[in-house]
Write a structure and sequence with these properties.
The chain is of the alpha+beta class. It is built from 15 helices and 20 strands. Strand 6 and strand 7 form a beta hairpin.
Length: 450
């Protein structure tokens, strides 16, 4: 096992990783920008190093500064958390060249899954179902039109690189394709510096289902069930739950076995998430995230498995500590992402927290690094915490979530807590009957009422 782990991140995920390290007796190093000097993970780590000014490009994305912090402190491994450098293959390669372990998959696997076209080709070879579409980058608008005619409209024109909904346009008919293709290509070039595009079948009302996997790079892999992340706004997840109310045990077993076999065949090491669109009983691969997910706590709640501890074990060279038969699913869990945002306009709301009271009780977990008096800086993502509740079934889970939200107090800033209270009043949410389009349609209806 490692002697000292540097946590190359901030906020709640840095604190989450720190706690796992401490439980394993591993020393920790916090890195931080000048804006985060008073952050909770900095206060609790064994050592801390300032790596630059507030701007992420000059601190949390500054690879030379992070490598220097490793050398100064003698850290023998780096946990990247999520976001920032967590899926940066060059960062993983540089750490390896400096004899520092990157707690994640190999740089090669990050590269493969970071390119949407190569990722799709790879998983298709491994037996994972994919959305019908182009086999690689589309060379021209004429090629796009030919492929769209073959797979049928509507189609999605999508950037090969990047994410977050940028470089994505829907063409409902052949008449729409030219505009969608040129607009998406220009967006991709501007956002990612890469205008490679591909075409795939557009699904009308799918759910977003993702499968949590864990491999040890030694030919062993398991899946830990699925998460339903269909409640999204502008392609950003808002509410996640496990297990999905849309799947039955047979579907869960079949897709899980397909995915875990593929991960084992790939020789993948670490945690990862295979994301699908799911419609009419069929799964269609979207992408693989080669890192810990924001929503990993719901999987931990239903399995009792600490995913960060497993990351640390596997990265240190240990084989998996479990087989598929060892993994069982208990109850239901839901996570709400609490953001420092206006709950209606979603405008960021940085500032000082004047009063903070997180909920508690049986089956309630809050992953957050904020505290009363903490100043939320304006420089980073607006996520300030995650409320995770677990119950014996989905009904109990929803009731527990309602109670926990009523207890949750964050004063001094605006948060998205009122949004989740509103969602709990909706029949579709209670019934688990929603798609990836549901939340934006709900918000549009609410806006029209005002």
């Amino acid at each position: 096992m490692f002697n000292k782990v540097l946590i190359a991140n901030r906020g709640e995920i840095a604190l989450r990783v720190l706690r796992a390290c401490k439980e394993l007796g591993i020393l920790t190093v916090a890195v931080h920008s000048t804006a985060d000097a008073d952050a909770m993970h900095v206060r609790l780590a064994d050592e801390s190093v300032c790596i630059g000014p507030p701007k992420a490009a000059d601190s949390y994305l500054n690879i030379p500064s992070i490598v220097s912090a490793c050398e100064i402190t003698g850290a023998d491994a780096v946990h990247p958390g999520y976001g920032f450098l967590s899926e940066n293959a060059r960062f993983a390669d540089i750490l390896t060249a400096h004899n520092i372990t990157f707690i994640g998959p190999s740089g090669d696997h990050i590269r493969i899954m970071g390119d949407k076209i190569e990722a799709k080709e790879t998983v298709e070879r491994l037996g994972i179902p994919v959305v019908p579409g182009s086999k690689g980058a589309v060379a021209s608008e004429a090629d796009a039109a030919r492929i769209a005619d073959e797979i049928g409209y509507p189609v999605l024109v999508k950037a090969a690189a990047g994410g977050g909904g940028r470089g994505m346009k829907v063409a409902e008919t052949a008449a729409d394709l030219s505009s969608a293709f040129s607009t998406a290509r220009a967006e991709a070039k501007s956002a990612f510096g890469d205008d490679a595009m591909y075409i795939e079948k557009y699904l009308g009302t799918p759910r977003h289902i993702e499968i949590q996997v864990l491999g040890d790079g030694q030919g062993n892999a398991v899946h830990l069930g699925e998460r339903d992340c269909s409640l999204q706004r502008r392609h950003q997840k808002v509410w996640e739950e496990a297990l999905s109310p849309a799947l039955n045990d047979r579907q869960r077993k079949e897709i899980g076995e397909t995915v875990s076999k593929a991960i084992a065949d790939l020789g993948y090491s670490g945690v990862g998430t295979i994301e699908f669109l799911y419609e009419d009983g069929e799964f269609y691969f979207i992408e693989m995230n080669t890192r810990l997910q924001v929503e990993h706590p719901v999987t931990e709640a239903i399995t009792g498995i600490d995913l960060v501890v497993e990351q640390l074990r596997v990265a240190s060279g240990s084989p998996l500590s479990m087989t598929q038969d060892d993994i069982t699913f208990s109850g239901h869990a839901i996570e709400c992402r609490i953001n420092a945002e206006n709950p209606r306009t979603f405008a960021p709301s940085p500032g000082r927290i004047t009063y903070y009271h997180p909920p508690g009780g049986l089956g309630v977990r809050v992953d957050s690094a904020v505290y009363q008096g903490y100043m939320i800086p304006p420089h980073y993502d607006s996520l300030i915490g995650k409320l995770i509740v677990h119950g014996r079934d989905r009904v109990e889970c929803l009731m527990r979530l309602r109670r926990a939200l009523d207890e949750f107090v964050v004063d001094g800033i605006q948060t998205t807590i009122p949004l989740f209270r509103d969602l709990l009043e909706q029949a579709d949410i209670a019934n688990g009957d929603y798609s990836i389009r549901w939340l934006e349609e709900f918000l549009a209806r609410e806006h029209d009422k005002e």
